[in-house]
């Protein structure tokens, strides 16, 4: 055993020398190559560092390019999944805002018209002369144009010209007469819209001309050309305004509504006037409760009522009350028609809610305010009325 141990000790130095020779051989080889290069060591080190940096930058660029390509492919896949059909045209379509602005700026043609106002008879004659360079609406590059003419102050009365087939330069030479008081000229706009007639589908609008009559000096006849513009969105017809006061006394549970007056009501009769009256209705918990109405004012668009209505409303129910004010046109022959309405209460919004809140914040004090009438359908939808019922008065 001792001999084996000694033999191991003797042979180990030789092994160490061989390994040392191997390890020192590589550095000696590298040093030999470096010594052959006719440059100082600091220059070689600088070159090596620069080469390393360039290699790192090159690798980073390759990685970024690969990542971008992957992201781009993913986006294309997502877009293609949302496309109906085999075409990829939608991938390069503009945004909706850019598309709408492009449609608005699109050339639609021109319209020649004339305006003549007779101050004695309170009549305005609108001459639709001709159109030029209209936009082609048919697949064959033509249109079948006709004109609709109306005043925003009385949208119920609209005139329509003849249809001219397959032309982009129609000559109309038609005159339309409107009965409009001089006092209403500044608040009315004349609208002339050119449509493309289609027998089997909806008529497409080519463009329109809007003329605020308050901007014109109608002492003389006006005749001129004007570029057509894109048709504006559906305008809300002016129904009129109504003024009334509210007062609530919590100690006596008394709600007082005073209908004062209305103005600029919509024309409902063929004479250009209306026979208005007002209904005042209370709604409790979305169910019709109590109602009263004013007298009828004949032949006027600006009636003066000054009528008082008292309702008994318990204080614990005032938060559940909706007050509906509606203006009607009386008709002896046919059914009475609603012109417009508003509702007030805790469920209301805007001026109506503000008026109701002011009444509750100032008990015993009458609060007066003007309100613009709204479309009947809009108010009814907001109220979400349930079936009728009658609630007995407290203490009865």
3D structure, described in words:
The structure is a single chain. Helix content is 27%, strand content 34%. It has helices spanning 2-36, 41-81, 96-104, 350-361, 376-383, and strands at 110-118, 123-132, 145-151, 154-160, 171-179, 189-196, 204-212, 222-227, 241-249, 254-263, 276-284, 287-293, 304-312, 321-329, 337-345, 367-372. It is flat, with a radius of gyration of 43 Å. It has 5 helices and 16 strands. Mean pLDDT is 79; it is low at 1-25, 72-101 and 387-396. The strands form 4 sheets. The protein has a 4-stranded antiparallel beta sheet with strand order 5-2-1-8, with no helix packed on it. The chain is an alpha+beta fold and 396 residues long.
Descriptive labels:
396 residues; disordered C terminus; flat
Task: Report a brief summary of the structure.
The chain has five helices and 16 strands. The protein has helices at residues 2-36, 41-81, 96-104, 350-361, 376-383, and strands at residues 110-118, 123-132, 145-151, 154-160, 171-179, 189-196, 204-212, 222-227, 241-249, 254-263, 276-284, 287-293, 304-312, 321-329, 337-345, 367-372.
The rough form would be described as: flat
Mind describing the biggest β-sheet?
A: 4 strands, antiparallel
Instruction: Give a count of the beta strands, DSSP E runs of length 2 or more.
Output: 16
Low-pLDDT residue spans = 1-25, 72-101, 387-396
- List SSEs in N-to-C order: HHHEEEEEEEEEEEEEEEHEH
Q: In terms of structural class, how would the helical and strand content be classed?
A: alpha+beta
Biggest sheet, spatial arrangement of strands: 5-2-1-8
> Cα-atom Rg, whole angstroms?
43 Å
What percentage of the residues does DSSP assign to strands (E)? 25-35%
Determine the N-to-C terminus distance: 127 Å
In DSSP terms, counting alpha (H) and pi (I) runs of 4 or more, how many helices? Answer: 5
Mean pLDDT: 79
How much helicity do the residues have? 25-40%
């Amino acid at each position: 055993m001792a001999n084996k141990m000694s033999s191991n000790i003797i042979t180990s130095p030789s092994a160490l020398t061989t390994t040392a020779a191997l390890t020192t051989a590589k550095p000696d080889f590298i040093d030999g190559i470096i010594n052959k290069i006719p440059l100082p060591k600091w220059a070689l080190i600088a070159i090596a560092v620069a080469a390393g940096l360039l290699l790192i930058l090159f690798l980073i660029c390759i990685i970024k390019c690969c990542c971008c390509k992957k992201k781009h492919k993913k986006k294309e896949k997502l877009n293609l999944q949302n496309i109906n059909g085999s075409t990829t045209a939608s991938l390069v379509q503009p945004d909706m805002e850019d598309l709408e602005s492009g449609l608005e700026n699109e050339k639609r043609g021109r319209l020649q018209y004339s305006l003549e106002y007779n101050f004695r008879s309170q009549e305005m004659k609108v001459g639709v002369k001709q159109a030029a360079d209209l936009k082609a609406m048919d697949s064959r590059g033509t249109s079948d144009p006709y004109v609709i003419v109306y005043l925003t102050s009385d949208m119920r009365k609209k005139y329509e010209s003849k249809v001219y087939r397959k032309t982009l330069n129609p000559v109309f030479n038609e005159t339309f007469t409107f009965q409009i008081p001089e006092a209403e000229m500044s608040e009315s706009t004349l609208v002339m819209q050119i449509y493309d007639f289609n027998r089997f589908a909806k008529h497409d609008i080519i463009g329109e001309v809007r003329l605020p009559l308050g901007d014109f000096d109608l002492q003389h006849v006006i005749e001129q050309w004007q570029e057509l513009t894109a048709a504006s969105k559906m305008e809300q017809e002016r129904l009129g305004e109504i003024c009334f006061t509210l007062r609530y006394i919590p100690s006596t549970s008394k709600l007082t509504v005073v209908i004062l007056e209305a103005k600029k009501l919509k024309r409902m009769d063929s004479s250009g006037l209306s026979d208005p009256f007002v209904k005042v209705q209370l709604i409790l918990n979305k169910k019709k409760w109590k109602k009263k109405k004013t007298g009828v004012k004949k032949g006027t668009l600006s009636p003066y009522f000054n009528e008082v209505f008292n309702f008994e409303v318990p204080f614990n129910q005032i938060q559940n009350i909706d007050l509906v004010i509606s203006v009607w046109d009386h008709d002896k022959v046919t059914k009475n028609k609603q012109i417009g309405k508003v509702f007030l209460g805790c469920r209301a919004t805007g001026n109506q809610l503000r008026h109701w809140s002011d009444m509750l914040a100032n008990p015993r004090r009458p609060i007066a305010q003007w309100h613009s009438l709204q479309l009947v359908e809009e108010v009814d939808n907001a109220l979400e009325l349930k079936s009728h019922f009658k609630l007995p008065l407290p203490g009865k």
